[in-house]
Amino acid sequence: MLAGGVGGARFAAGLVQVLPPEQVAVIVNVGDDFTHFGLHISPDLDTVCYTLAGRENPDTGWGRADETWHALATVAELGGPTWFRLGDRDLGLHLERTRRLQAGQRLSAITRAVCQAWGVRAQVLPVTDDPVPTRVRTTEHGWLDFQDYFVRRQCAPRVQDFEFVGAARARPAPGVLEALAAAEAVLIAPSNPWVSIGPMLAIPGVREALASKTVVAVSPLIGGRAVKGPAAKMYAEMGIEPSALAVARHYQGLVHGLVVDAADAALAPRITAATGQAVLVTDAWMPTPARRRALAQVTWDFAQALRLAARG
Ligand code: FO1
After folding, report:
1. Pair (247, 153) in one structural domain
2. How many domains are contained in the chain?
3. Residue 293 falls within a domain, yes or no?
4. Measured in angstroms, how far is the CA atom of residue 64 from the centroid of ligand 1?
5. DSSP strand E in the chain: where?
6. How does pLDDT run across 133-187, given as a tens digit for each residue?
7. How far is it, in rounded angstroms, from Cα 165 to Cα 300?
């Protein structure tokens, strides 16, 4: 499956309840990665790892459960930047990852070691080991680094464009193309199509690897609104009415099926007419582990049915 942050992590947590975790590969966006206090932060990767390890903060979706904030309080006392909230437990991962990166290890190898230490049995793969920082062009401030736009400015500026710096020269991380080639089906989590899935598809070889696969996406928009994050606002600012139909058009030519919430059932015929995608209507909101599992189950079954139908 392809995953961004919170939506991707929660869907992955459902999928590992449906399939043997060892048979699940979670390919994760690294366009949100940045350097802060000299430390390498990989928000989406960490959200996926924390969630699969049962260590995530259930309120925010990102960061650690049972977090304390002593280090950040010291930064605040000294007048340093506190707009990006790094908790004490979270900092430990950033310290150790940065140490290993500086010693020459790859992000994918470090992620494997982290998952092994925490008993995560699914394969969690950064889509690339190369830096591919997302930038957002805004009406008010021109080009902004992603976390400056997302966290510091709380997604308030109007977006006009996105750039995935270095993506055209980036190589898929070891294991990514192998996992896609071996996959029975590829599921795209209910993540932001612009800034979570988009950066991954921009890396040469990833989109191509999906071409021969049965691909099913889950719409991150329910009733025209994002469950979390700025996806709906981004569609509107890019001049597109936010809806499950907009998501279907976004993924046209890439996915064979789209899973939408019951709130969007009326859009199903229009989605199929406009894009040729099969549509599955279900309860696509995942507030609890049981609902994550249920969504993953119906999405997987839908992909299997489409795969078997395509084989004839
Ligand atoms: N998101 C916020 O909205 N505010 C924060 O202070 C914040 C801190 C943070 C620390 C570590 C981490 O791994 C993620 C963090 N996030 C925070 C989430 C992060 O910005 C993600 O990039 C977005 O949620 C998009 O996936």
Report:
1. no
2. 3
3. yes
4. 11
5. 2-3, 25-28, 34-36, 39-41, 123-126, 134-138, 142-145, 159-164, 186-188, 215-218, 221-222, 225-226, 257-261, 278-282
6. 999 999 999 999 999 999 999 999 999 999 999 999 999 999 999 999 999 999 9
7. 33
- What residues make up the domain containing 234? 168-310
* Residues within a 6 A CB radius of ligand 1: 4-5, 32, 41, 43-44, 46, 62-63, 84-86, 90, 147, 150-151
Which CATH number goes with the domain that contains 234? 3.40.50.10680
Ligand 1 centre and the CA of 151: distance in Å?
A: 7
What atom in ligand 1 is closest to the CA of residue 146? Answer: 22
**For residue 312, pLDDT beyond 90:** no
Cα(159)–Cα(289) distance, integer angstroms: 33
Q: How many CB atoms lie within 10 A of CB 101?
A: 16
Query: Which atom belonging to ligand 1 lies closest to the Cα atom of 47?
Result: 13
Phi, psi at 124, each rounded to 5°: -105, 120
Is 181 in the same domain as 300? yes
- The tens digit of pLDDT for each residue in 108-134 reads 999 999 999 999 999 999 999 999 999
140 and 187 inside one domain: no
Residues 116 and 246 in one domain: no
Residue 263 lies in a domain: yes
- Same domain for 303 and 241: yes
Tell whether 254 and 290 lie within a shared domain. yes
Query: How far apart are the CA of 291 and the centre of ligand 1, in A?
Result: 24
Asked if residues 126 and 206 have their Cβ atoms less than 8 Å apart, the reply is no
Q: Are residues 297 and 172 in the same domain?
A: yes
Best of 33, 47, 107, 151 to mutate for ligand 1, by most ligand atoms within 8 A of CB?
A: 151
Which pTM was predicted? 0.98
pLDDT of residue 311: 84
**CA nearest ligand 1 atom 3, residue:** 151
